[in-house]
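Quick start: read one record
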Amino acid sequence: MSDRSGHMVFPMTIEDSFQVLCQPDAGKSCGACCGLYNYVDSSRDSLVERLRARTKRFRDRVKTPADLDDFARATFACEDFRKRYEVIYCCEYLGFLDEGEKRVGCLLHPMQNHGLDMRDVSFYGRELCAGHLCPSHHFIGRSRRQILLDLIDDWYLYGLCLTDIDLVECYFRLLADRLGEEIKPAAFADDELKRLALSYFNWKVTWPFRSKEANRLGKYYFDGSQYMIHHIDYEKFGLAPSAFNAIFLSLSSEFHCAEDIRTAEALVGSNLDAFVLRWRAVF
């Protein structure tokens, strides 16, 4: 089935029910399905300011469901709701769930309101919000999902990486090809392996060749209402497609010359090589 914006909605399976990734622990959560990263300005600082003010407004104003209209009007009046993609809804009821601002999530959820479920007023409705699992639950392997959970304790980076299937799968596949076996979560008890993997995933925020375009997030952009996949034109630089092409797309790369591509390949290659050397030394 599909939701109102055309995204596929996958039913929860018995296997996945034991590892729901939206609110996995007290140190992080993901709000991507609620449009968290779909604002034109989706930088960390901007989102913290937005969510902090919104959460305070909700706590101050909403005591019963009758107060929700007033909250929504005030939120739309105060915030910049310009979007990257018009077809993806940005939910006004997404906020911080804890005093430490480590988890983002639904302010309407019964666990936030002494058992009262107010999600019926949201754009997607209570049933869809309660039953939706993003594709990452199904297309990122179980051990790789666990590695992400063990590696990242930061809501902003966690949501960006969790929802980028290619970024996760390509990295661990390239490592497995070099090592001749799959990486197990237990490997990241080693601090250096953890540091190397985190440095890779941090490129989702710090990548030096990241495009400055407003209407790009990872490899996708929209042409009207249709998803399109960005294309890197290697041929114009006299190069064959990179072995790291999927990673470059996930990192919203924009290259201006052949040297840019070679530098990007060296960055990824160095990370993989260092990981393999350390893994072999440890195991």
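Confidence is low (pLDDT under 50) at residues 1-17.
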